[in-house]
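User: Fold this; tokens only.

Assistant: Input:
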Amino acid sequence: MLKIEALPAFTDNYIWMLQDSERRRCAAVDPGDAAPVQAWLDSHPDWRLTDILITHHHPDHVGGVQQLKSKHGARVYGPAAENIPARDDALSDGQRIRVLDHELAVIEVPGHTLGHIAYFHDDAQTPWLLSGDTLFAAGCGRLFEGTATQMFASLQRLAALPTQTQVYCTHEYTLSNLRFAKAVEPDNQEIAERLEQVTRLREAKRITLPSDLRTEQATNPFLRSAEPTVVAAASRRVGHPLDTPETVFAALRSWKDSF
């Protein structure tokens, strides 16, 4: 099993480092800044950066790609539908790639951007997902390019993965997301308990990731738009009944944008 380590970047980004300790090889996920990755490599001089995985084109996810590729010759994977700097492999839905001797499935998840992809490793014991800015811990990405319909469908695809799937998203938004979740479902005990736990972690300046899909299905309002309590809250927010999970989701996303 690979070790997956978070390298903080900017104010709230995480660059995930996938590490094959047996062969001293690693891969960087969404390196918006080359400096944290290079610092890690400098402190591990016998390791080699072989791969770079990109989920979408935003600068805080691709800003360090060219520098790292030029220095280390890493192979760059990214979505076919977006302009990714120095990309070697343009990926589309359903493709499978092999990175550090692990097979990853490519899942197209438009919404945050139109070409956004996620990477899923279906390990029998502990599957894991690199979700970029689509599925966050207790939240989801803003709709910068896509529609609520697209994001709803994307999240449904991810929510259908095994419940034990570990979710590695790329921002430390968990605390603010849970505050919103509590506003949507003030009587949800699992949200209250998670908010308390995450508050303690952030007070100690500790990371709140990864999450897992079981936790997300219990506490993430954007995966709970068919739940009666969430439907009622979203309907009250817009002032009229909402009759489908998709319209509930759209109302939640709009609510969160101004929360």
